[in-house]
Amino acid sequence: MLKIKEIIRHIFTTRLLWDFFMLQAVILNLHLIVFDLTYLTLRPYYLTHLPVITKFYDPFLGIEPHRTTDDYLLMVDEYSRILATPDSQEKTEAIQTFSQKLIEQSEKIISENPFEKAGLTANLQQIKHEIKKKYEGEMGISPEKSSSKEALTWFWTYDPKNVTQHIEFFKEEIYPLIKPNYYRHYGLNGKYKDEFFKLDLPFFLLFLIEFLVQWWLAIKNRVYVAWFLYPMYHWYDVLGLVPMAEFRFFRLFRVVSMYIILKNSNLTNVGNDIFTRTFAYYTNIIKEELTDMVTVRILSEMQEEIKSGASINLVTSAVEARREQFKKLIIENFKKALANPKAIDTMRKLLAEALVKSSNNAATLQMVPSIIKETITKDIGLAIFDSMNEVISSKLIGENGEENMNLLIDNILDDVILGSQDSEFNKLSEDMSIEIIENMKKAVSVKKWVKAKL
After folding, report:
1. Residue 368: CA atoms inside 13 Å, Cβ hemisphere, count?
2. SS (H, E, C) 346-393
3. Positive or negative CA dihedral for 38, 41, 45, 51?
4. Which residues contact 155 (CB under 8 A, 6 or more apart)?
5. How far apart are CA 301 and CA 281, in angstroms?
6. This prediction's pTM
7. At 194, is the secondary structure helix, strand, or coil?
8. What are phi and psi of 182, to 5 degrees?
9. Positions in the chain short of pLDDT 50
10. Helices 423-444 & 310-321 angle (0-180, nearest 10)
């Protein structure tokens, strides 16, 4: 018995129970939001098959039957009731009276279009079409010579031969088109009345408290480097908490919250299931394909720029604009190299090896003993190197040193810029650049997602 209690305590942890509770709340709230967003569209269906829903929810949106169309239906019901009563003088007078009222009310409906504000103008068009079709069929009139008003006048004019048939036709074909029409009241803000917040308020408070608690825990546990980053990372929760009708659609982002709850809890294996993996797989395909297309397009435009010769001008302009910076950087590095004993010793060793090798290969010194020619050649070469190093150092350190170096670098940069205008040089650099970019395009075009596993 104790083991069973331990197992239950281990399974039903506080965290798991809270996740389960929040999951149910999110699911219920999502159903409520979807219901609200689709209510006006599905109201005709609810009115016919589930009238209890419209009776409950219409007051929240300030909806009531439209007086014009509702009076019209009441007239038809009363007219039908009178027709069913025994014949009498009062019945005949009442029939004539209601027949005329129905004709007048029909004309009023056509001229005023009480369906417009409810977004049901298509219903009025369908009513006129059905009445006209019946009128043309029974009277043998062509569509070009008939009108909706004429058809409705004919329809409601009392004729003992077809009055019962007309009433039945109206209740079967026309009544379902008129019944969904409604009038909606305006609120104090000048917009349609909407009290959905009364139903959503408990969920709003629950999600707000949960959001603030999670934010506080994130600050306490130092989850993010700054306290204000939590709302940025949980933007979907922020959108879902905006209590404005205009933002109601964004409450569907609570689906993201539901996904996060499922992924972080032990309720399911969401995040590692086949659906999530499949979604991530195809999302990565789309992202890679789009990125590859954009990258290839950019590289192709770069190739076109290079072919047009604009790239050379860009390079030379960039070099020219930073001439002084180049000169300063070269002089500083040159000074460092000359003042570095290790670098000078390394260069002297390399030069000595090169001089010894050269003396042995010189044809004019073949008759001279190796020790003599190697020593003389090496000493002379190193002496020249030391003299040149001393002269250059003195020139740089001495008076007008940097000025002389600036002139030298200016001449080199001028030669580089002038050389870049050479057609052969341009052709070579253009071909190399285009080939490099082409290889980059090939590398980008490789379908990495083909090798990825689902």
Report:
1. 15
2. HHHHHHHHHHHHHHHHCHHHCCCCHHHHHHHHHHHHHHHHHHHHHHHH
3. positive
4. 106, 131, 134, 135, 166, 170
5. 30
6. 0.56
7. coil
8. -150, 165
9. 1-4, 7-8, 10-11
10. 100
Backbone angles phi, psi at 194, to 5 degrees: -150, 105
Q: 148-155 — which CB contacts under 8 Å span 24+ positions? A: 148/110, 149/106, 149/107, 149/110, 152/103, 152/106, 152/107, 152/110, 153/103, 153/106, 153/107, 155/106, 155/131
Q: Which helix (H) or strand (E) holds 315?
A: helix 310-321
Per the CB < 8 A criterion, the answer to whether 227 and 216 are in contact is: no
Closest to 127 measured CA to CA, from 76, 164, 171, 178: 178
* Span 269-301, pLDDT tens digits: 555 556 556 655 666 676 677 777 777 777 777
Cα gap 383→280, rounded to integer Å = 71
Query: Where does residue 361 rank: exposed (0-12), middle (13-18), buried (19+ CB within 10 A)?
Result: exposed
pLDDT of residue 180: 93
Q: Quick one: tokens of 439?
A: 């290889």
What was the pLDDT predicted at 402? 62
Return phi, psi of residue 222, to 5°: 55, 50
The residue assigned the tokens 């038809």 is 76
Structure tokens at 184: 């909606």
Q: d(Cα 236, Cα 238) in Å, to the nearest integer?
A: 5
DSSP 249-304: GGGGGHHHHHHHHHHHSSS--TTSSHHHHHHHHHHHHHHHHHHHHHHHHHHHHHHH
Q: Are 178 and 72 in contact (CB under 8 A)?
A: yes
Give me the pLDDT at residue 314, please: 58
Pairing of strands 182-184, 63-65: antiparallel
Tokens 């596993």 -> residue: 453
CA distance 123 to 134: 17
- Closest C-alpha among 411, 401, 381 to residue 338: 401
User: What is the domain partition of the chain in residue ranges?
Assistant: 2-41+193-264, 63-184, 310-421
Both tokens of 83, joined, read 């027709």
- DSSP 8-state code for residue 192: B
pLDDT of residue 260: 67
Q: What is the pLDDT of residue 321?
A: 67
Give the pLDDT confidence score for residue 7 in this predicted structure: 44
Separate counts of helices (H) and strands (E) for the chain = 21, 2
